[in-house]
Amino acid sequence: MEVRQCEQCAKCSGGCPTGFAMDYLPHQIVRLLQLELKETVLESQALWLCTDCKICLSLCPHQINLPNIMKELKREARMSGAGKVQAYHDAFLASVERYGRTSAALALGIRNGSDKEIRWPLLKRGKIKVFRGRVHDKVAMKRLFAQGKRRTLDV
Ligand code: SF4
Ligand code: SF4
Fold it and tell me: In Å, how far from its chain's centre is CA 84?
């Protein structure tokens, strides 16, 4: 497996634009895989924060294709029901597919923990719109999602 070649130089993590928010940085994900701790990776938030930007791949001295590894692991996490942020991820995409946008109310309704403290103050002050509008061109939105799903299946 290509992760065996990783020398833990952490260049991937240094260039990752979403690394600051990840629970495990990209080089740590690779290390976990080297140590055969895949379950930990499948439950990590990092998977869902990877944007497939491929910066890590361009910086890696061994051309380890971390974006593809992340994509594959995301798929596995989805199949196995693992993944702390999967419900949020799915609800966000379902909302965008259906309405062309998401809503802060939806996001705050699904997430818990620290959001609970800010949910009601924000609602009371009218900072969160409960009802969202729709995009006018719903057909174009559906076409975009169909293209995206086809492309994901082709990977
Ligand atoms: S492809 Fe993912 S892991 Fe790699 S740099 Fe981009 S966001 Fe980070
Ligand atoms: S840049 Fe490549 S070799 Fe370096 S830590 Fe990341 S995956 Fe490993």
Answer: 11
